[in-house]
Amino acid sequence: MTHHSLDFYTYHSWANERVFERLKEVPEEIYRTEVQSVFPNLSAVVLHIYLTDLVWIGALADESYEYIQKETGAASTRLQNVSIEEIEREYAILKERYLDFFLGREDLDSKIIRSHPQFGSVETTLSELLHHVVNHGTYHRGNITAMMRQLGYHGPSTDYIYYLYAKK
After folding, report:
1. For the chain, how many helices (H) and strands (E)?
2. What burial class does residue 56 get, using C-beta atoms within 10 Å of its C-beta: 0-12 exposed, 13-18 middle, 19+ buried?
3. Chain segment 72-103, per-residue pLDDT in tens
């Protein structure tokens, strides 16, 4: 697993783990406290990142749109009011699913076609889609940091450069 995109995914996992660590340090009620933001509370944005990662592992694996919707809908219902520790466990399982998927792939840069019922088909690569997953997570970890500041707490430092220093 030496492809740059896989290292980038490792960064994504590392950053999510930093978020979990930080959220477990603040009072438990902060996780569900309503704020004026893009998401109603921290638990909603954490769940959103998880569900979107779940959608994309299905898309990467070329699962049907219907299957992805069904799996994501079931996960959304099941995880709606779980604790930060429970969603963290779900992330760990999903991370393994990503790593297992990519373990057997030799060429992450070969062209693939993925289809969506609303947006049509797109020619892309697994590495480009993986970059999308990481970029999406980065964006919403920024939401988490902003929301934590609104609630009077510092968010975790999850910039890529901190990952590079942490892994050396």
Report:
1. 6, 2
2. middle
3. 999 999 999 999 999 999 999 999 999 999 98
Comparing CA positions, the residue from 26, 46, 43 lying closest to residue 34 is 43
The residue behind tokens 């062209």 is 111
Q: Answer whether 143's CB lies under 8 Å from 36's CB.
A: no
CA distances in angstroms from 4 to 38, 80, 114, 133, listed in the order given: 31, 34, 22, 14
86-96: string of b/e by CB count within 10 Å (b at 16+)? ebbebbeebbe
User: What integer pLDDT is reported at residue 38 of this predicted model?
Assistant: 93
Beta strands in the chain (DSSP E): 111-116, 120-125
- Global confidence as pTM: 0.95
Residue closest to 70 by CA, chosen among 54, 93, 90: 54
Do the Cβ atoms of 53 and 94 come closer than 8 Å? yes
What integer pLDDT is reported at residue 168 of this predicted model?
Answer: 81
